[in-house]
Amino acid sequence: MNIDSLIDMELIRQSLASYARGIDRQDLELVLGAYWPDGWDAHGTHEGTPAEFGAFVSRQWPMLRMQHLLGQSHIELDGKFANVETYFFAHQHLVEGGSEWVIAGRYDDRFEKRGEDWKVLHRVVVFDWRKEWALSEVDVEKLDALPNHNRGATHSDYSWDLFASKPLKRPAG
């Protein structure tokens, strides 16, 4: 393995992280930015192009709050292509329905490098398990008591401000 391979692997991980951030922040541009436009996504109940997947998932956003946690990625590079398997946990909260669930599985991806960018060309989501439970009134009340900038999947979520500015530099000393 050489430095170029390590850089390519990190760029693939950054693309995966941008996808997860986009899904959780309900940012269609970030989600679609992880895919090549001519790509394909087989996502359980939906299968189609990235644009079709984006339309599908954005219809779900008003009903759901999500958080995706990515685990290890097994990455095999082969020139401008890479086979990548990434473990995930996805916590989903139904806003009006009083239930939430966790899904665990793997993103089995074929990435392609075009120019300097690595993006998903083909994705199959493998679902390994799912657990659902009812949300208690106490849980709802505690979450509702938080200000908007402390709540995920809102446009006033603090992460938008954080990443809109440069990191703060502390004086030496």
Task: Give me some keywords for this one.
2 domains; 32% helix; alpha+beta; Nuclear Transport Factor 2, Chain: A; 6-stranded mixed beta sheet; 173 residues
Describe, in plain words, how this protein is organized in 3D.
- This protein is α+β, with helices and mostly antiparallel strands.
- It folds into two domains: 3-134, Roll (Nuclear Transport Factor 2, Chain: A), CATH 3.10.450.50; 136-166, no CATH class.
- The chain is built from five helices and six strands.
- It has helices at residues 3-25, 28-33, 50-60, 137-144, 158-164; strands spanning 35-43, 46-48, 64-78, 81-94, 99-114, 117-134.
- Strands 2-1-6-5-4-3 form a six-stranded mixed sheet.
- The longest helix has 23 residues, at 3-25.
- The protein is globular.
- The mean pLDDT is 89.
> In whole angstroms, how far apart are the ends?
39 Å
Strand content: 35-45%
For the record, the count of structural domains works out to 2
Sketch the major β-sheet: 6 strands, mixed
Number of helices: 5
CATH fold assignment of the largest domain: Nuclear Transport Factor 2, Chain: A
Radius of gyration: 18 Å
Which strands sit side by side, in order, in the main sheet? 2-1-6-5-4-3
Helix content: 25-40%
Indicate the low-confidence ranges by residue numbers. Answer: none
Mean pLDDT: 89
Can you tell me the CATH architecture of the largest domain? Roll
Secondary-structure element series: HHEEHEEEEHH
Regarding CATH, which class of the largest domain?
Answer: Alpha Beta
Structural class, please?
Answer: alpha+beta
Query: How many beta strands in the DSSP annotation?
Result: 6
**Shape field:** globular
Organism: Novosphingobium colocasiae
Domain SnoaL-like: 5-123
Protein name: SnoaL-like domain-containing protein
InterPro entries: NTF2-like_dom_sf (IPR032710), SnoaL-like (IPR037401)
